[in-house]
């Protein structure tokens, strides 16, 4: 069980995506196997928005100063577009 840093709900690892720090950037660890500290988030834009608003990403990853979360937003956008195509 993991806890989403956005909504704070607990969920299975398969239902969450892992975020990691790469320097000042935050990226999605799609295989959830990269070494180091990670933060877990549901694959919902609402959870990402909550995590950003609460500044939970930087805290969870123990990052100092401003963070670049552009790659995470891009990944979430691609996932949502793919889901809409399936429906």
UniProtKB/TrEMBL annotation:
Top-level taxonomy: Bacteria, Bacillati, Actinomycetota, Actinomycetes, Micrococcales
SUPFAM superfamilies (alphabetical): YlxR-like (SSF64376)
Residues annotated as signal peptide: none
Ranges of residues in domain YlxR: 2-66
UniProt name for this protein: YlxR domain-containing protein
InterPro entries (alphabetical): YlxR, YlxR-like_sf, YlxR_dom
């Amino acid at each position: 069980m993991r806890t989403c840093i956005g909504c704070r709900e607990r969920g299975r690892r398969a239902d969450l995506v892992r975020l990691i720090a790469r320097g000042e950037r935050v990226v999605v660890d799609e295989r959830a196997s990269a070494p180091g500290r990670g933060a877990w988030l549901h694959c919902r834009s609402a959870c990402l928005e909550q995590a950003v608003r609460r500044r939970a990403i930087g805290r969870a990853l123990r990052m100092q100063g401003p963070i670049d979360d552009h790659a995470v937003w891009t990944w979430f956008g691609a996932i949502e577009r793919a889901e809409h195509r399936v429906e």
